[in-house]
Specification:
Helix content is 40%, strand content 18%. With 289 residues, the protein is of the alpha+beta class. The relative contact order is 0.10.
């Protein structure tokens, strides 16, 4: 369901069909609840807003009757009653005023992120420059941090430090699509059935981790990480030459620069952990972040 309140009130169901909401007070109720953006509105507040001046003798019953009419017009589940009052049950993003506010906030956050990136790179983006930025890293890592009293979070993904990720010559970003063992760069085909990926700005990860109270205890390529953990010894311990050849081939794909060895990075985020991290003993790229 979508509700439009920026112009004339408009209500549409999930199929896009218009739902008439008749009566000025009924429309006012829907608009008042929509303005709250999913927050509960107390009954006495609704009564005061819907009946200016001297309200009904029994405000609770009057509001309840009006809510019943709204449910009949727009669906029985559109409004719920909780301990603190009535609220709309649809996501705030389905209300045009809130969707507009969210879009403005997102645009401001994106502009701030771009300004920050340009400052780190040392030059403004050229015309036509296209890339990606993840603005949800901070809340995600904050939630991870809330769960970690003592220990380590190990992150592994395709990625680069910020200065390399947003290098002026990387004009087309890192977005890639994968469908039936084929890779391409068009996210607008095979909708809903293909994987869409982008690399990670590990500088942004490190900044979000520090803001969340975590320590960046290691950053290295996957190749250095696996060798530091003893990958070569693991291959050497194979039970026979055939098994050793098989393991060597798999290890090669994991560590060779042209395969996954350099493109994949490993990052360790810790809290209250004072133990050596063998995977980062051979290489420390934290100075690049």
């Amino acid at each position: 369901m979508r509700i439009g309140i920026l112009g004339p009130l408009e209500v549409r169901d999930t199929d896009g069909r218009s739902l008439p909401v008749g009566g000025a007070r009924l429309r006012s109720l829907l608009i008042r609840l929509a303005i709250a953006g999913g927050d509960a509105v107390p009954v006495d507040r609704l009564a005061a807003d819907l009946w200016p001046g001297e309200g009904p003798a029994d405000a609770a019953n009057a509001v309840q009757a009006l809510v019943s009419r709204l449910r009949g017009a727009a669906g029985k589940d559109i409004v719920s009653l909780g301990p603190t009052g009535y609220r709309l049950t649809i996501p705030s993003g389905e209300i045009d005023a809130w969707a507009f506010e969210q879009a403005v906030t997102a645009a401001q956050d994106l502009r701030a992120a771009c300004t920050e990136i340009e400052a780190a790179v040392g030059a403004p983006f050229a015309d036509g420059y296209a890339s990606e930025v993840c603005l949800r890293l901070s809340p995600w890592l904050a939630s991870v941090s809330d769960c970690l009293e003592c220990g380590l979070v190990l992150l592994s993904d395709y990625g680069l430090p910020r200065r390399h990720y947003y290098h002026p010559q990387r004009m087309a970003g890192t977005l890639r699509c994968h469908f039936r063992q084929r890779a391409h760069d068009d996210p607008y085909i095979n909708l809903g059935v293909q994987d869409i990926t982008a690399w990670v700005d590990f500088t942004r990860v490190a900044e979000a981790a520090l803001d969340a109270g975590l320590t960046v205890s290691g950053f290295a390529t996957q190749a250095a990480f696996l060798v530091g953990l003893g990958l070569e010894a693991l291959v050497a311990e194979a039970a026979g030459p055939v098994e050793r050849v098989r393991l060597a081939g798999e290890a090669r794909r994991l560590v060779m620069p042209e395969e996954m060895g350099e493109a994949f990075k490993m990052m360790a985020l810790t809290r209250a952990l004072e133990v050596p991290l063998a995977g980062f003993a051979l290489q420390d790229l934290r100075h690049q972040l």
